[in-house]
Amino acid sequence: MDMNKKPWPITTTYGWREKIDTNPDYQRPAVWTVAQKQLLMDTIIRGYDIPKLYLRQISKSPQKYEVVDGQQRLRAIWSFINGEYNLLKECDSVLGEVVKNLSYNELPLSIRSDFDVYSLDMIVITDAEEDEVREMFLRLQNGTTLKAQEKRNAMPGKMRNFIKSLTFHKVFTDSIKFNNSRYTHDHVAAQITLIELNGEPSNIKDHDLNKMYKDNMNFDSSSPKARKIKRVLDFLYNMFPEKTPELERYGFISLYILISYLLERFDITNRGQAIAAWFIQFEQYRKENILLPEDQADSEVITYHEKISHSTDAIDSLQWRNDYLCRKLFEAIPDIEPKDNQRMFTQEQRLAIYRRDNGMCQLKIHCDGKKCEWDNWQADHIIPWSRGGKTTVQNGQVACSECNASKSNNIV
Description:
There is one protein chain. Helices cover 46% and strands 11% of the residues. By secondary structure, the protein is of the alpha/beta class. The strands form three sheets. Strands 1-5-3-4-2 form a five-stranded mixed beta sheet. It has a two-stranded antiparallel sheet with strand order 6-7. α9 packs across α11 (224-239). The model has no long low-confidence stretch (mean pLDDT 90).
């Protein structure tokens, strides 16, 4: 990698703006406020120094560059020349000339001439590998207010590239509600990737994501885990083929975990639209409940709302949300079948059955429908499994131990 310092007048950079890419994919979007831009212009018209800018030459013929460091400053300069904002209203005079609240075109000729020829210290980088440039970007940004995902987006490695590729999936471009401000889509894509790598809900905080990027620099985008992520996203897109207001950030992560779990264990091939309708109805119910007085609201829904609002990236929160959504889904769509012809009900199915039956024995062979404690009841197949009965919430019922033992494989 070679670096050469070249003084470029502002007019040169403005004239070459079509040759300079201010937003390569490792850069963060424009985030400066008007006040920050105005302060930089004030610094320039007074002839004060500003930090060096770094460009990488990506083509010699035709000449093309990308900004490694300084894109906010270049954007600010160009937008001032374009008349998009004025100098500060309280700006002091310069060389005896009044400049407060003036646009670029309104500047006195002497001030504008000095502005035009103001020399920007450009460090032009040539013969640089992509990973070297990303490493330099991170070093140059050290100590600034880059968000964690903005830093991860600049990391070298195949994991970063895989995460970036996920953000172009139609779920992110066409379905979800939340925008990609400061790489929010990348952040969510990284979180669902880490969940799949771990095979279950897990901590998906920034330090966990950083470790994933570093430990998987040679990640295989065609691996079983990668294919599973894409399969879940495909299923979600088929559920929500257009922009869906209910797909907010943390609810989307919960829904992803739920669908990932169901695809592994249950036959939901043709149930996507039914699950989508249930989720939209659930989200409406949640939003209605958070507006109710505490004594009138559904306490479990309020707990769910709190868990998608606070400590959202912790394993306990994610696991609770998944268990709760599983149960509510099985209550709403009780005929979802396991993929394998298994006899035992899953924990989520058992809980849905128990809540639906209020814990009361439904057989009533040796009892009158007594209340069963959670740790002392049987999930009974209404049509016995040995007779072709399915292991679904719809075909399950609460039974006390005595009644269940007496039923055997009979239909009661």
